[in-house]
Amino acid sequence: MKLKLRIAMALLCGVLLTAFWSCEKDDEIGFEASELRLVFEDNFDGAEGASINTDNWNFEIGNGENGWGNQELQYYTDRPENVSLDGEGNMVITARRESFAGFEFTSARITTKDKFEQKYGRWEARIKMPGGRGIWPAFWMLGANIETEPDNDPNTVPWPFVGEIDITELRGQEPSTTIGSIHGPGYSGGGAISGEYELEGERFDKDFYVFAIEWHPDYIDFFIDDIRFNQITIDDLPQGVEEWPFNENPFFMLMNIAVGGSFVGFPVEGTPFPQQMVVDYVRVYDIVD
Q: What residues contact 287, with CB distance under 8 A and at least 6 apart?
């Protein structure tokens, strides 16, 4: 609803979507460079086939519980066949159709948990996405106090109470559309608060794009390159829901390619493999006081 309203405003103003913000008199767009300080950067420099920097990233291994809660089909590994550098300044996450550990697909899922975590600021990555029916790439974030096991630790909380920010996720069968979302108590899974951006005549699996959020205490802006395509605020919470877990704890990043699952459906015989998410860089900026 919100995105449709903004597009309508753009048409009324007689400008392109990339320039329609002048219609919103009281809405400032984006941090100024002087407001930000670079605090995390990975440019994925290194030899072809080399591992990613484990000072920055963790590998998550396996299929989780019920396919990481989504009925996903892949088994995540730390093998170079599934995640490594390409020797050209990129990290490549590769999903493969292969028999491994009792599963028919492999892929990789990496996180910065306990290695880099932050609250607020700008988070961005330059990525060329995979595509194909049943392919589900994502660049996303979770609250650092997430409960990884039901161990009754009073300092952790389960999903979705911990909060989730999806900077971008795509359904591979819709390679021109990106989705930015938040999940929290009362608005998770299929009830997440989301906005979409659709390329005109282009596809996210054919070129690199910068996917970013700018995270403020009371709202989160979502960007493709320099275009803000959605803003989610506390006022967007469902009626009767008050919990906004996005100003309580720092968050960490995740990047992965899932195969199948409730969000995208399942791959078909014609879905091409291997599928690759090629990441040029990941950067995070803190807000200068």
A: 31, 35, 36, 37, 120, 121
How long a stretch of residues is the chain? 289
What is the Cα–Cα distance from 105 to 113, expressed in whole angstroms? 25
At CA 164, angle to CA 159 and CA 166, rounded to 5?
Answer: 140
Query: Largest Cα–Cα distance of the chain, in whole Å?
Result: 57
Q: How far is CA 118 from CA 25, 219, 249, in A?
A: 31, 16, 8
Pairing verdict, β 164-169 and 177-183: antiparallel
Catalytic residue flag (residue 169):
yes
DSSP character at residue 68 = I
What DSSP element (H or E) covers 2? Answer: helix 2-13
Give this prediction's pTM: 0.89
210 - beta bridge partners?
A: 126
Positive or negative torsion for Cα 136, 6, 240, 253:
positive
- Select which of 169, 196, 198, 248 is catalytic: 169
Q: Is 190 helix (H, G, I), strand (E, B) or coil?
A: helix
CA dist., res. 149 & res. 232, Å (int):
30
Q: What is the pLDDT of residues 26-80, one digit of tens each?
A: 345 788 888 999 999 999 999 999 999 999 999 999 999 999 999 999 999 999 9
Tens of pLDDT, residues 243-280: 999 998 999 999 999 999 999 999 999 999 999 999 99
Residues 95/259, Cβ–Cβ less than 8 Å: yes
- The C-alpha atoms of residue 50 and residue 89 are separated, in whole angstroms, by 11
Catalytic residue among 72, 124, 164, 214: 164
Number of H helices, E strands in the chain: 1, 17
Please indicate whether residue 164 is annotated as part of the active site. Answer: yes
